Amino acid sequence: MSDVRAAIIPVTPFQQNCTLLWNDTTKKGAVVDPGGDLDRIRKAIADSGVTVEKIILTHGHIDHAGAATELKEELGVPIEGPHEADQPLLERLPEQGRAYGFEGVRAVTPDRFLNEGDTVSVGDMTLEVLHCPGHSPGSVVLFSPQERFALVGDVLFNGSVGRTDLPGGSSSALISSIKDKVLPLGDDVTFICGHGPMSTIGHERETNPFLQGETLD
Question: Which of 16, 17, 145, 161 can pair with 63 through a Cys bridge, CB separation 3.0 to 4.6 Å?
């Protein structure tokens, strides 16, 4: 039985799925996409007894990265991700905050940008990095071949795909990312997305109206 555990913490008015991911034996883990509502994130960490070793960002939008700098300073841990193509978004987080009514949002400077083919460790789990532009230029998907599990940010949803009408978005790039990189991971792969319920790649291949007709080719 797997020792990997995940707790989804809905944060911000956008109900973004901040995720606490950890190994239940070692109690070492990571916070993925701390967009805001730090009190909720702190409580989830305390309730789980997890020692957070890093913060991981799937992309640079306010609801995913808005509280990352403050949490980094509180915990004394590095920020890994997203791809460097989202650096302009991370630098403009204070402007994003003002536009959406978020107070005190600070820019984010990751300790490590992530590239296609990189790996990220969470406890003793290794996540493979896929650069999946379209929703944002620097969006990444994180995949564990051993656990058959992925964190997909706002690339793919249960029944939908990420919006592409924000700066740097591209519908053609997004569908290519999903078709060429996410679907080939396998129908049995379970994923946590940035908003809404979890799903599997197989379920989305069969039922997602944006993906009908897509194959592994």
Answer: 16
| Selection from 38, 47, 32 nearest residue 79 by Cα | 32
Q: Does the pTM of the predicted model rise above 0.90?
A: yes
Residue 65 to residue 71: CA distance in whole angstroms: 10
Q: How far apart are CA 175 and CA 46, in angstroms?
A: 38
Which structural domain range is residue 70 located in? 4-207
* Domain count within the chain: 1
Q: Which residues share a beta bridge with 131?
A: 140
Which CATH number does the domain housing residue 11 bear? 3.60.15.10
Query: Distance from CA of residue 124 to its chain's centroid?
Result: 19
* Secondary structure letter of residue 175 according to DSSP: H
**Cα dihedral 94, 96, 98, 99 in deg (nearest 10):** 170
The tens digit of pLDDT for each residue in 89-134 reads: 999 999 999 998 888 899 999 999 999 999 999 988 999 999 999 9
Q: What does the DSSP 8-state code read for residue 16? A: E
Distance of CA 47 to the CA centre of its chain: 22
